[in-house]
Each structure stands twice: as structure tokens, then as C-alpha cells.
Amino acid sequence: MTFKPLSAAVRTLRRQGIASAVSKASRRLRIAVDRGALTVLQWRFGFAPWHSQSPLSSRPYRRGLAAMVNDLAPSCVVEVGCGLGSILALVKAEQRVGYDVDSAVIGAARFLHGRSIDFRVGGFEAVTEPEIDVLIAVNWTHDFDPVQLEAWLMPLLPRTRYLMLDSIDPGEPAYPHHHDFDFLRGRARQIASERLGESNRHFLLFETIR
């Protein structure tokens, strides 16, 4: 009798182990399939190959980031450096606008999402929306120094309510810049910081000071 609870516990652990293994294998298969599909898209449109290696299924932070944005109940969301538009596709807003300097990736994003999202070629300087509830710029700003980033963001602050940015952890040698966004002091206040499953960065939400 004393061994029955132990046996039941062992069976439960085995079932959980099998379920976990199946879940991990299923996720790996999904990522492989998604990468294959995006690789075909990359051949068709000619955008940079790295986009095809990071589908939504391989980067769960995008869902968490979109949830943070959706909690703000925005009407207009703009993403600069939108890539294939996987974040904007998860955002709930009346107006969703994605900018990217790569015309090939913008063409592919339009193919994937149709007219539900307004995709445009350009960077920060191309943003024309007069009122922006949330401005997103993640997963690429670490390639540029703080002076350049400040020059891009400052003109947009007067018409932006919230900024969603990411900061690479200090000591990560693969990244040229590790922003502390000190230039936003007195212009925006940080109201959230989340890892969203990423081991080397935080996603930072700022509210602009008007």
C-alpha cells in the first residue's frame, strides 16, 4: 500500500516528461516549417536572409510585446523597422503603420498581411502620422549610436504618447551599442521593463512627458 502513491507519482512524472518532450518537438517542427516558408518568401522578394530565420514561432517575445501595447488600448501604432510585420499583425489598433528601409521586406510584408496594415518604405524620418499612440522600435536600434537614435526620436516625441524600445544587457559583445536611453530624461519616463523570455535584453515602455 505504501508504494501506490509513489508509483502514481512516477507515472505522473513520466506523463509530464512525455508531454514536455512532445511539446518541445512540436515547437521545433513548427519553427522549421515557418523558416522554410519564409525562406521561399525570401527567394521571391529578395529581402535579407536573417528575416527568414526568425519567424514568430521562434521569437515569443513578439507576442508579449504586442500584449503590452494592446493593454494601452491604442488607436494608432507605428513601428519603425517593422520587418515582415509580425508584431504589428498582433497589435489591436484602428491604424497600424509599419516602416522599414528595406523595400524588399516591405513588399513581402504587404504580401503576407494584405491591406490590413499600412506598410511603407522608410525610417524615422519618413513617419508622417500626426498623432501616434505607440511608437515601436525594437531589435535593431543597437546597431546605431545614441546620438543618431536621439536625432531620430526627438522630432517624433511631441506627437507620440508611448515609446516601446529594447535595451541590450551590458557585456553582450555581439552588439555594437547598449542603450540606456539617457537622452530621454525629462522628455519621457519609463513605466515598464520586461524581458519577455529574452535572456539578453529588456523591453522598455516609456510615456512621453508633454
Instruction: Please estimate the helix content.
Output: 25-40%
> What is the CATH first-level class name of the largest domain?
Alpha Beta
| Beta fraction | 15-25%
Radius of gyration: 20 Å
**Mean pLDDT figure:** 92
The major sheet is characterized as:
7 strands, mixed
Short description:
It is built from 4 helices and 7 strands; from the N terminus they run H-H-E-E-H-E-E-H-E-E-E. By secondary structure, it is of the alpha/beta class.
Structural write-up:
The chain has a 7-stranded mixed beta sheet with strand order 3-2-1-4-5-7-6, with helices on one face. The chain is globular and about 65 Å long. The longest helix is centred in the N-terminal third of the chain and has 42 residues, at 4-45. It is 34% helix and 21% strand. The protein has helices at residues 4-45, 61-70, 103-113, 146-153, and strands at 76-80, 95-100, 118-121, 132-137, 160-168, 188-194, 201-208.
